[in-house]
Amino acid sequence: MHPDTLKLKQAIACENDLLKKLEILHNSYQGQTGYLIACGPSLAEFDPGLLREFLRDKTVLALKQTLTLLREAVDFHIQVPANSQRFDYGGLTPIVIDEFSPNDPVSFTQPDVMFPKEPYSLWSAVSLSREFDSYVIADNPIRPCGPGTIYELGFYLALHIGLKNLVILGWDMHSDPLQLQQLREGAVGCTHFYERSAEAYRLLDEESNPSRGYHQMFQRFQGGMPINTAATTPAADILMTALGSGYFYTWLRERGVNLFVTTDSPLVSPRIPRVELWRTDDPAYLEEASSPDRKPDPGMLRFSALKDLFPREQRLLATDSCFGLGWHGPEKSPDGSSSWRWSGPQTVSHIYPRLDRSAALELHIHGWFLVPGTLGLRVDGMNLPVELICNGELLEISAIIPPLLAGEEFEFTRLELVVDRTQAPSALDSNSGDNRKLGFALTRLTTSLVFPGII
Hints:
By secondary structure, the chain is an alpha/beta fold. The protein is 21% helix and 26% strand. It has 11 helices and 24 strands. 40% of the residues are buried.
């Protein structure tokens, strides 16, 4: 634990206003090296006593159950409602950080700092949007959907307190071969350093929550303390965080924070330097490891472990819960035979198909306009060379987006559906009473990967 942490905790305790608490923490560990401890199974490879001794005088950001392993060494204890546990801190004095959104299960903590959080939404995740600047804590305390604690709080907290270097331990959940195989089936249970085995955890989850619902939380007990546990992690989340790790690395470097990882996980971008923990207290070692001249193994850039996780075809229906930004809720016809969803007053709406960038993307859109209009399509912020036009009500459009080669073979691609006008139904029918601004009604969108030689 850093010698200043207890004073900071006491100063924070005297404030009730979140922004004032954050002002106290801002740049409070300026220029230092910090250690972010995640709950992945590789953490069990370290001798707990040696690890605590190494970290005892350093700045430590501990996620969730890692507190039980590190104890007095922890400066910041970071929790979120998913996979969180109720802790008896006893004589421990870390600064406790948490986040909460209206859709989350009950939080167990009484934190020193509680961040408001945007509701979980697969399609607005910051790993996909890459709108990292929008969530810098000094400017905006509201936390994004990462997804994941490291992305929502860990990176941003390290930047906020002024760290120069951030070394991450235990960043390897979902990376064992059996789990990578399970991901191809669509979802997987987490494994952590504190579980007896990966298989034991999966069986426990399946027994406790046979429905295996999408991010449904249930409670189990560990050491007599309740824990909120997510039944499974969808493959899309893991794809996001794998690709997002490289995006965050580049963005943090631009902000003056060097990122390192001690685990050679296939789900952590090879852009991020791998380091030996016991040498990271040597500034010269970290400086060499973070050199701009360092080049990762080109063969790793392809995220080969993810290759089979990209579906050849993906369908987005109006009733899907994770949809995008700028849309109204789903609606159904009186007889229930069809469903649709209107784009709202923000005429740019984001959809993120999973895309192997070496393939073309065939796109099929079905829907209609409230009034005659134009539907434009942008890909990663660039307009397609052909504009998609509809002059009637019914709309059925097909387009092929050519291969998008980039630094990594696998990346998410952002599709933006852009309408040129919106209209309130009440402007067309004074008896409707509906003053929403509506543009394009989407019934379904299908994307298919088309590989070179097939087009």
